[in-house]
Amino acid sequence: MEPRFDLIANEFGTKIAKRTYAVSLVIEQSSLPKTTQELVSLRASQINGCGFCVDIHTKEAARAGETSARLHLVAAWRHSTVFTEAERAALALTEEGTRLADAHDGVSDETWAQVRKHYDDDQIAALVSVVAMINASNRFGVILNNPGGGYEPGMFTGMTD
């Protein structure tokens, strides 16, 4: 599997990639737990079939302290006992926010109520932003045919320089 285009090797593409990464750094600094950010990113990436992003967020979640059991169960979170109610709300929001074309109603009021129950306004802003940004990143990865498997944790550090 070969990438179709190296976005970073292109001057204009680099500007876009750096700005996209800068948004992720702002989200990372939020009070939304890092493990929740990674679980959300992993789940959206699984849904969208982005191997590059699945690779990144599995490894970054492990680096942030996630257990292999929880990582293996993200795809089946509804049928597992290892996620908190807050994480389940975040994962439901992720699925509904990722599958907009499949769900004519978008995010359900029930899911939104669960998110409001477990997260404050700053965390909700971060959570909604994670869902939006990972979906954008998944599109880059899938469209450009970026393969998973070669990511090393922290390798994008300093990309905004």
Sketch the topology as an H/E string, one letter per element. Answer: HHHHHHH
Any idea how many domains?
Answer: 1
Q: What is the terminal-to-terminal distance?
A: 30 Å
Helix/strand-derived class?
Answer: mainly alpha
Oligomerization: single chain
Strand residue percentage: under 5%
Q: What would you say this structure looks like, in words?
A:
This protein has 7 helices and no strands. The longest helix has 23 residues, at 121-143. The two termini are 30 Å apart. It is an all-alpha fold. Helices cover 61% and strands 0% of the residues. The protein has helices at residues 11-28, 34-48, 51-63, 68-73, 85-98, 109-118, 121-143. It has a single domain (14-143), classed as AhpD-like (Up-down Bundle), CATH 1.20.1290.10. Helix 1 packs antiparallel against helix 7 (121-143), helix 2 runs antiparallel to helix 3 (51-63) and helix 2 runs parallel beside helix 5 (85-98). It comes from Streptomyces phaeofaciens. This is Alkyl hydroperoxide reductase AhpD. Residues 27-96 form the Carboxymuconolactone decarboxylase-like domain.
